[in-house]
Design goal:
eleven-stranded mixed sheet; two-stranded antiparallel ribbon; 15 strands; 15% strand
């Protein structure tokens, strides 16, 4: 990452970098509303980097990072998009945030999300997050503000989490990259939705995404995974140090001209959704274009014309509503939004009937996903089913409006939380509406390096673009 390289070499001070990004945030965020809280103390924290003896070895030296407002940042209250949550400051950083700081990153703010991270919209009591590509549309959710902040050039990296697509959906809406790692790679959120949710980064390039993931995972080999996608052993989970080994020194390498070649068996599924759920034809075309790009790059490409099993949809919805009931259970109900109360109520009703999605989840994660994918190493499929809906105050609406809109446009991601497979979104094209189109890459457990390698190859042919009016 250019910022970190310049700070390590002493070409620019971390305080200058942070001050410049805070200025950009002040200028652009009134239109986007990505941030709930901007941390002016970040300048003082950047100043402390000069005193670190390991400054020349920090992979994220001076890099401004935004953090989703349901993760603990010491001294700040994580509000999770809700006025019903506590305003008590967090006593310490979440382990994922601590790893970012240990690597030299500076936390510049906490980003907005829908209440309790329950939906694929960006509205809450703290404002409506707007999409930098079209301010009338949602930035997606639930990591809404983190995706929008990267897309609008306010930060180069951001941290979010994904319980049913909450990294991949807003990344696709906003035209950036995001990766949901498999379980055990990155310390998960405190409320991990019964092992459905994982923390992961947003970035604009595969190289930066790989670097951020390597820091979050404590594994320096992942920083190089974008170069070729070679298989590596996943690190031991929940390590305390920045890297997997305390005595391992990170040494930056000059970037090559492009990613190295490697050969995978890649399946592509332009319409993987069950019968009854439509898929935008331009999104289907983008999947085919991605597959052709990787065929030319030397991979074995096969079309996967099977749809996801019908029973998985109801199981996923039941699981989602059950998590809504659980997340809202200890909070003051009158203080919650109408949408949250409705989703939680539906989850409690289904739970009382024994319809909690557990059997479907076990069936899918036990053998269903492997059997469905077949012999492929990676699957390409759409990240969304339709372009993002309007940036509105969805929290003031009821269950049916929210649930139906979520399912119609954001139903392509939850299956991979149900089985715990790593998955990511890569922007590939522009829709006729002017919105970005992202494709979703999915791999079996341990496949994060392959995902990053393929993302780099796709970006080599389809370079990233910024939303109109927001320069790099």
């Amino acid at each position: 990452m250019e910022i970190a390289t310049a700070v390590r070499r002493g070409e620019v001070a971390a305080t200058t970098v942070v001050e410049e990004h805070l200025h950009v945030i002040a200028e652009r965020d009134p239109r986007i509303r990505a941030f709930r809280l901007v941390r002016e103390r970040a300048v003082d924290e950047a100043r402390l980097l000069r005193k670190r003896r390991d400054l020349a070895e920090l992979p994220l030296a001076g890099v401004p990072v935004a953090v989703k407002d349901n993760l603990q940042v010491a001294g700040e209250a994580p509000r999770a998009g809700s006025a019903a949550t506590s305003d008590a400051p967090a006593p310490e950083d979440h382990p994922a945030v601590a790893r970012l700081r240990a690597a030299g990153a500076v936390i510049v703010g906490l980003t907005n999300l829908p209440e309790l991270a329950l939906v694929a919209f960006g509205d809450s009591a703290y404002g409506v997050v707007r999409n930098p590509w079209d301010l009338s549309r949602t930035a997606g959710g639930s990591s809404s503000g983190s995706a929008a902040a990267v897309a609008a050039g306010m930060v180069p990296l951001a941290l979010g989490n994904d319980g049913m697509g909450s990294l991949r959906i807003p990344a696709a809406c906003c035209g950036v990259l995001a990766i949901k790692p498999g379980p055990g790679l990155v310390p998960p959120p405190s409320d991990d939705w019964d092992r459905l949710a994982e923390n992961g980064p947003f970035a604009t390039t595969a190289a930066d995404l790989a670097l951020a993931l390597s820091v979050l995972a404590g594994d320096p080999s992942l920083a190089e995974a974008w170069r070729g996608g070679q298989r590596v052993e996943p690190p031991k989970p929940m390590l305390r140090s920045v890297w997997a080994d305390e005595d391992q020194v990170w040494e930056p390498q000059p970037p090559p001209d492009g990613p190295e070649p490697f050969d995978l068996r890649v399946a592509y599924a332009p319409q993987p959704l069950p019968v009854g759920l439509p898929m935008d034809r331009e999104f289907r075309a983008a999947v085919r274009a991605a597959a052709e790009t990787l065929r030319v790059a030397g991979h074995t490409i096969v079309e996967h014309d099977h749809r996801l099993p019908f029973w998985l949809g109801p199981a996923t919805v039941a699981t989602w509503l059950g998590r809504a009931a659980s997340s809202a259970g200890d909070l003051d109900r009158p203080g919650l939004e109408r949408r949250t109360r409705a989703l939680a109520r539906a989850g409690r009703v289904l739970g009382a009937l024994g319809l909690n999605g557990v059997r479907g989840r076990q069936r899918w994660s036990g053998y269903g996903a492997d059997q469905w994918l077949g012999r492929a190493d990676v699957l390409i499929m759409p990240a969304l089913a339709a372009v993002p809906p309007g940036a509105e105050r969805w929290g003031e609406r009821g269950f049916l409006r929210n649930a139906l809109t979520n399912v119609r446009y954001a139903s392509a991601t939850g299956a991979w939380n149900m089985c715990g497979w790593p998955a990511m979104t890569v922007p590939l094209a522009t829709h006729s509406t002017g919105m970005p189109i992202g494709v979703q890459l999915v791999a079996p457990p341990g496949g994060e390096p392959q995902l990053l390698g393929l993302a780099a190859q796709l970006q080599a042919v389809h370079p990233p673009t910024r939303a109109p009016g927001f320069s790099f």
